[in-house]
User: Which sequence fits this backbone?
């Protein structure tokens, strides 16, 4: 079938092709990643020394808030949806996503949602400044006027995510090629289906929470206002009922990516395929009963603290199974260390460090010391940056030949890897120490005793920021003047997209279903 | 796409949209659920309504310290204090504490105090037989009032609770009270 498509801007506005939409998602998330990263640079510049240097405290708060919101909702989540769009149809032998027009719509909502959110920076009273967790009453009684733009933005991106998730589920359930049974699906598809179920379960709860905020702010309700019989602590319960599954939404697809890449470069089958599936599902199920470990210090009764502490620690079991399986896959494999593999191995190691600090935070008695300190910041950046971001980066290097038909420059890729690897640890490792020593998060100024750790973290952060611009350069260079890729650029890669499709993948693939062995 | 596949998709989409709608409603259902859960377990520091004092044996062995906190909410120009900062009481004994309020505004205002007990688990054992928090206070400009609060501590209070803090937050509910008045007329 000939490629028939409009050209120029219309191609992108009207496209219903999963590959085009995947590309747009990925570029959009990268732009958001750079914007959120620029905000992180402002934060780290201000924290380079104690005292106030560059920005006002209120603007600093806007930076931490917007950095979090942009990175979570604008960078990490859309990048995963972008990967899903590109890969899921090819991996299950489907011609496209099941609902292509909705797919177009769910992407095109995002630029508008984030324009709304970012425009709040230029409004009177400034952007939201209450932290990405927008606890009431900071976001209700005391929120700046722009909070309403934030609420609308969250609603829009929530609708976008829900539509994306429904699309993934319908595609995977109804569009698999004959013979592609559920337990034959690549792990990336599995992790994404589970993620999609998490999304349709918790994004509506987030929508409910911001709706209650909106009516509290403007329509005289008192969900979170004690003056009217409401309760601000209830906000935290509702928020984290969404918030904890949300952190797995951000990491599970990266688990899937690692489970594709590690076997390819170890030239061995993935160790324990079915245990990987069950582990992912149990992580997702457990994520619904652990939310209050984010709020150990609000005054929960001892029984509650114990329940949430133990439930949280249970999550270490399936997560441990996954880490064990990745290591066992590498064990005695014929490993080579191309850039995607380097990022995947770094993912396993550094994510495990983040997992361990998570277990420390799960212990209610010690959490009273760590709560709201830089230790928490170190923990979640270790699971998000070397976790979700390295996972996505590995995926981009791995599937770039499939997407563009071009190879990246292996030497530049390795430079990018080592640069990021050193910088990410230099940035976030010292935060463990400043946190344990008691440095609170979300403050523009701090005690002299934390100066050295912060200086190191700031230097690391600037290097990390630059390394991402270098990533952009490597990718653009590959697309423009990269060597033409073979149809099988990785000799260990398996799956329909590598075995049955050329590089680059044609605009329309699997119009007739492939044979699945 | 075949017609059969389209109906399959439609069925699945309807189910999934049902989940989405259900979870959106669930977020709102959490509000009453949260209140019910807290009321049953008494872990939110919310005291129960009016209690009846039953003449029972007083536990002379134990002393529980009750501290009183008073706060006025934003936009409530009243003075509001307890006459004593704290009292030591025996479980089972009926006690009285006087609270004082004065309207410092030059208009009539309606106030409502909301109690909260810390630690939250102690809330179930603090029984109030008489409290100004059971009703609204209407004070004209400059008017002051002394309000008694009678309470006793249940003898069943766990041994590890030796201190309880009873906090009152005073809210300005003038607007709501007027709206109610109009509605009943």
Assistant:
């Amino acid at each position: 079938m000939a490629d028939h498509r409009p050209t120029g801007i219309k191609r992108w506005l009207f496209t219903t092709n999963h590959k085009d939409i995947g590309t747009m998602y990925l570029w959009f998330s990268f732009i958001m990643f750079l914007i959120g990263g620029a905000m992180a640079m402002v934060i780290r510049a201000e924290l380079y020394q104690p005292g106030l240097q560059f920005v006002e405290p209120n603007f600093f708060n806007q930076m931490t808030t917007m950095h979090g919101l942009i990175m979570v909702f604008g960078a990490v989540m859309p990048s995963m949806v972008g990967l899903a769009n590109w890969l899921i149809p090819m991996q299950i032998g489907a011609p496209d996503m099941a609902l292509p027009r909705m797919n177009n719509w769910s992407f095109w909502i995002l630029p508008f949602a984030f324009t709304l959110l970012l425009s709040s920076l230029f409004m009177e009273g400034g952007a939201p400044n209450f932290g990405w967790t927008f606890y009431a009453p900071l976001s209700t009684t005391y929120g700046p006027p722009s909070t309403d733009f934030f609420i609308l933005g969250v609603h829009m991106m929530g609708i976008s995510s829900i539509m994306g998730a429904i699309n993934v589920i319908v595609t995977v359930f109804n569009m698999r090629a004959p013979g592609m049974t559920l337990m034959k699906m690549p792990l990336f598809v599995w992790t994404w289906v589970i993620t999609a179920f998490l999304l349709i379960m918790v994004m509506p709860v987030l929508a409910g929470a911001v709706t209650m905020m909106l009516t509290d702010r403007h329509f005289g309700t008192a969900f979170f206002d004690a003056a009217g019989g409401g309760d601000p602590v209830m906000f935290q319960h509702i928020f984290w009922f969404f918030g904890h599954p949300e952190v797995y939404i951000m990491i599970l697809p990266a688990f899937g990516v690692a489970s594709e890449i590690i076997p390819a470069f170890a030239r061995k089958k993935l160790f324990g395929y079915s245990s990987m599936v069950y582990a992912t599902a149990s992580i997702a199920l457990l994520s619904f009963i652990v939310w209050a470990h984010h709020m150990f210090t609000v005054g929960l009764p001892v029984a509650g603290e114990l329940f949430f502490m133990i439930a949280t620690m249970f999550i270490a079991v399936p997560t441990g199974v996954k880490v064990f399986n990745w290591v066992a896959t590498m064990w005695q494999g014929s490993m080579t260390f191309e850039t995607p593999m380097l990022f995947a191995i770094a993912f396993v190691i550094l994510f495990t460090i983040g997992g361990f600090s998570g277990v420390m935070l799960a212990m209610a008695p010690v959490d009273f010391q760590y709560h709201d300190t830089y230790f928490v910041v170190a923990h979640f950046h270790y699971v998000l940056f070397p976790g979700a971001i390295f996972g996505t980066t590995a995926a981009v290097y791995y599937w770039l030949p499939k997407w563009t038909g071009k190879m990246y420059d292996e030497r530049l890729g390795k430079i990018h890897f080592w640069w990021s690897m050193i910088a990410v640890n230099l940035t976030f490792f010292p935060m463990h120490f400043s946190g344990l020593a008691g440095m609170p998060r979300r403050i523009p100024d701090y005690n002299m005793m934390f100066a050295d750790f912060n200086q190191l973290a700031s230097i690391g952060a600037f290097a990390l920021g630059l390394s991402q611009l270098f990533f952009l350069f490597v990718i653009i260079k590959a697309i423009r003047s990269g060597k033409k890729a073979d149809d099988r650029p990785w000799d260990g890669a398996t799956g329909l997209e590598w075995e049955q499709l050329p590089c680059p993948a044609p605009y329309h693939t699997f119009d007739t279903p492939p044979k699945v062995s | 796409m075949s017609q059969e596949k389209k109906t399959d998709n439609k069925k699945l989409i309807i189910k999934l949209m049902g989940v989405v709608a259900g979870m959106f409603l669930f977020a709102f259902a959490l509000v009453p659920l949260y209140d019910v859960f807290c009321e049953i377990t008494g872990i939110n520091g919310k005291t129960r309504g009016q209690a009846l004092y039953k003449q029972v044996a007083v536990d002379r062995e134990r002393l529980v310290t009750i501290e009183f906190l008073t706060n006025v909410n934003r936009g409530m120009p009243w003075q509001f204090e307890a006459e004593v900062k704290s009292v030591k009481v025996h479980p089972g004994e009926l006690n009285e504490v006087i609270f004082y309020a004065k309207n410092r505004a030059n208009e009539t205002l309606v106030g409502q105090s909301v109690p909260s007990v810390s630690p939250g688990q102690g809330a179930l054992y603090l029984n109030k037989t008489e409290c100004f928090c059971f009703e609204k206070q209407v004070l004209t400009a400059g008017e002051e009032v002394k309000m008694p609060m009678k309470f006793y501590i249940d003898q069943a209070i766990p041994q590890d609770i030796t201190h309880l803090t009873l906090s009152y937050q005073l809210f300005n509910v003038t607007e709501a009270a007027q709206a109610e008045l109009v509605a009943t007329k």
